[in-house]
Design goal:
By secondary structure, this protein is of the alpha/beta class. It has a single domain, classed as TIM Barrel. About 45% of the residues lie in helices and about 15% in strands. The protein has 10 helices and 8 strands. It has an 8-stranded parallel beta barrel, surrounded by 5 helices. Strand 1, helix 1 and strand 2 form a beta-alpha-beta unit. Helix 3 packs parallel to helix 4 and helix 8 crosses helix 10. The longest helix has 17 residues. The protein is globular, with a radius of gyration of 17 Å.
Length: about 240
């Protein structure tokens, strides 16, 4: 069961600042938070972040930092005053990098988490880049273990990896899950996906959902329907 009353964070993946700000205000009270990623932050930076944050929703700043420990620590330190609810790095950067990331964010307002394996990658993709064939779930769990040992609050992971991660690392370890699609929706560029109901029943704390909300004719109605699906799944 999610620790959040509304586990849905809407992904505002756009360079259109006014649209993102308007949608964040429109969705207030209907989603648990919003996610701002590379596309938005590269275009609009701190000022754009601030305008979206003014809507009053928690913000997941999805920058996926991955560099040497000192560089990642410096990057996070420079953003610390924004006080996002969540910010992330790549677990593949290693334990030293993640420990540096944890140490760079002193505010209790911000949770630092790590990406295990992108939901756009499947086992075939991992084999192509040099991992052992069929090792996606095993590799995700190994990275999640390292993330927790490095002092981070949780991970971004696929629903396919949730059961093992939740079972081994416990209920207090934050799980943020992208690749969420309502039944019958187009997968688009995602491969390891699941429905909202399946994700929350499997143990996801936060569901990152973008296009099923942002491309809907009525984004508020779409967000409400997704939240209702999550509630019904947990009540079943």
């Amino acid at each position: 069961m999610s620790r959040y009353e509304n586990p849905i964070f809407c992904a505002l993946d756009t360079t259109d600042l006014e649209w993102a700000v308007a949608l964040a205000h429109e969705l207030r009270g209907h989603v648990g938070g919003v996610k701002l990623g590379l596309e938005f932050f590269y275009a609009h930076g701190r000022d754009g972040y601030g305008r979206v944050a003014d809507a009053g929703l928690p913000v997941f700043l999805d920058l996926k930092l991955h560099d040497i420990p000192n560089t990642v620590a410096g990057g996070l330190s420079s953003l610390a005053d924004l006080e996002p609810a969540i910010v992330n790095v790549h677990a593949g950067g290693g334990g030293a990098m993640m420990r540096a990331a944890a140490g760079a964010v002193s505010s209790g307002q911000t949770q630092v988490i790590a990406v295990t394996i992108l939901t756009s990658l499947d086992s075939g993709d991992l084999t192509e880049i040099g991992f052992r064939e069929g090792a996606a779930n095993e590799h995700a769990l190994s990275l999640a273990r390292l993330t927790k040992a490095s002092g981070l609050a949780g991970v971004v992971c696929s629903t396919h990896d949730l059961t093992a991660i939740r079972g081994e690392l416990g209920a207090d370890f934050l799980t943020v899950v992208p690749g969420i699609r309502p039944a019958g929706a187009d997968n688009e560029d995602q491969k390891r996906i699941a429905t909202p109901a399946w994700a929350v029943k499997t143990g996801a704390d936060i569901l990152v959902i973008g296009r099923p909300i942002t491309r809907a004719d009525d984004p508020v109605a779409a967000a409400q329907a997704l939240a209702a699906e999550c509630r019904d799944a947990l009540d079943a």
